[in-house]
């Protein structure tokens, strides 16, 4: 069996061919994505995408552990990264280490991700020094939606300096890569040129060292809303609705089950 990629491998891909990253929350989807991906992120987006929550804030460590275990079972090649959920790391380095260690030990994932720039630098350095690779996440940080007042573009105009300072801080703290979410393309390119670690864009720029999307968004499976930065590569929600409608019709007119789906007195299990 192939050895899976490590955080150090991902770090070493700076300036090389773009890193292919997707979220995954379950074993079967992880198996599908693993063949093409470098990173599978068990995002806290799982709360909105699979659990119907109104934001990522109610997502718990237990939810991340359960979905993390499922994804690790389905991943052979990709690095599995697990999001630290809201409230599990912001108190300080000790709390962050305790919970990151649980995520790593109980799932077998290769790294964690947490949101925040300069104010998280000490925590990132603390985790990295103790054996936990950290992917940073700056720009739009959805766990801060209540403080920001919405999911708007970050770093426009003079605000670019703030995001660049965050990028430098997380890189200096030892993060092995950084997600840039919903920032102007020009700023994403400047940060990518400035940092020695890979930038992974979502609503950022094709010039980033990699790209990530929420898999249910790009498959057209989650269709409650579609951010501008999402490209739909399939329309699985429509396909699923059609399949369910066809099944319902077959049940109502008794064309399902057909003879090949039912059992006779003879023939054992077949
Ligand atoms: O939770 C998530 O899915 C994420 C990515 C979109 C970066 O944080
Ligand atoms: Na997230």
Topology:
Elements: H1 7-11, E1 19-23, H2 27-34, E2 39-42, H3 46-49, H4 61-74, E3 79-83, H5 93-107, E4 111-115, H6 121-129, E5 134-139, H7 145-148, H8 160-172, E6 177-181, H9 185-194, E7 199-202, E8 210-213, H10 215-218, H11 236-252
Parallel strand pairs: 1-2, 1-8, 2-3, 3-4, 4-5, 5-6, 6-7, 7-8
The structure holds 3-methyl-2-oxobutanoic acid and sodium ion (NA).
The CATH class label is Alpha Beta
Form type: globular
The total of helices stands at 11
In CATH, the topology is named TIM Barrel
- Biggest sheet strand line-up: 1-2-3-4-5-6-7-8
Percent helix range: 25-40%
For the biggest sheet, the summary is: 8 strands, parallel, barrel
- Give the count of structural domains: 1
The rounded Rg comes to 21 Å
Give the averaged pLDDT, no decimals.
Answer: 97
- How far apart the termini lie comes to 34 Å
GO molecular function, one term: magnesium ion binding
Catalytic activity: (6R)-5,10-methylene-5,6,7,8-tetrahydrofolate + 3-methyl-2-oxobutanoate + H2O = 2-dehydropantoate + (6S)-5,6,7,8-tetrahydrofolate
Subunit structure: Homodecamer; pentamer of dimers.
Enzyme class: transferase
């Amino acid at each position: 069996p192939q050895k899976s990629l490590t955080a150090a491998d991902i770090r070493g891909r700076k300036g090389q061919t773009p890193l292919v990253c997707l979220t995954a929350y379950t074993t079967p989807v992880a198996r599908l994505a693993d063949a093409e991906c470098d990173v599978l992120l068990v995002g806290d987006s799982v709360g909105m995408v699979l659990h119907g929550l109104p934001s990522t804030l109610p997502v718990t460590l237990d939810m991340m552990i359960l979905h993390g275990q499922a994804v690790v079972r389905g991943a052979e090649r990709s690095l599995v990264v697990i999001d630290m959920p809201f409230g599990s790391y912001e108190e300080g380095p000790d709390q962050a280490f305790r919970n990151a260690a649980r995520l790593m030990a109980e799932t077998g994932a290769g790294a964690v991700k947490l949101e925040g720039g300069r104010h998280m630098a000490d925590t990132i350095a603390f985790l990295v020094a103790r054996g936990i690779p950290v992917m940073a996440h700056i720009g739009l940080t959805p766990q801060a939606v209540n403080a920001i007042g919405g999911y708007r573009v970050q770093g426009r105009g003079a605000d670019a300096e703030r995001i660049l300072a965050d990028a430098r801080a997380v890189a200096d703290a030892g993060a092995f890569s950084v997600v840039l979410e919903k920032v102007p393309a020009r700023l994403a390119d400047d940060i990518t040129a400035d940092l020695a670690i890979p930038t992974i864009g979502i609503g950022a720029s094709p010039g980033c060292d990699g790209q990530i999307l929420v898999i249910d968004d790009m498959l057209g499976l989650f269709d409650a809303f579609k951010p501008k930065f999402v490209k739909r590569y399939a329309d699985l929600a429509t396909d699923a609705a059609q399949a369910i409608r066809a099944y319902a019709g077959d049940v109502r007119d008794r064309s399902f089950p057909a003879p090949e789906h039912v059992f006779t007195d003879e023939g054992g299990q077949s």
